[in-house]
UniProtKB/TrEMBL annotation:
Protein name, entry field: Cell division protein ZapA
Protein species of origin: Anaerotruncus massiliensis
Subcellular location: Cytoplasm
Principal place of residence: cytoplasm
Pfam families in the cross-refs: ZapA
């Protein structure tokens, strides 16, 4: 199970959440699904340890809220990063245009300077 499977391959993965066994059909690699299950199981156990009288249903609702919150925040962060990257790309494009303009001006000034030096050399040669 060293690599990722193709999207068409369906794996049946047996997981255990709070002592209950579930079989998941998924196209994801077994190791990935087992990791998710372990993370969920640890979160459930943590909530149950802090609140021994809470129902399993309530624990699942709290877990779902936590994961939805994390998902929404990561989406917002991704949107901010995309916006920031777009701004950086725009700034880089403007800087590239400015650099090209400076290079053209530099080349123009060099040609002018070379022309002045040649005129100066010609005048010196004439004497």
């Amino acid at each position: 199970m060293g690599g990722y499977r193709t999207m068409n391959t369906i794996n049946r993965v047996r997981i255990t959440i709070n002592g209950v066994h579930y079989t998941i059909s998924t196209s994801e690699p077994e190791e990935y699904v087992l990791g998710l299950a372990q993370e969920l199981d640890e979160q459930i156990k943590g909530i149950l340890e802090k609140n021994p009288s809470i129902s399993f249903n309530d624990v699942m609702v709290l877990c779902a809220i936590n994961y939805i919150d994390a998902y929404k925040r990561s989406e917002e962060n991704a949107d901010r990063m995309r916006t920031q990257i777009s701004e950086y790309l725009e700034d880089a494009a403007k800087a590239r245009i400015e650099l090209d303009e400076v290079k053209r001006e530099n080349a123009h000034l060099r040609r002018q300077l070379d022309g002045q030096e040649m005129k100066g050399q010609t005048k010196l040669d004439v004497k």
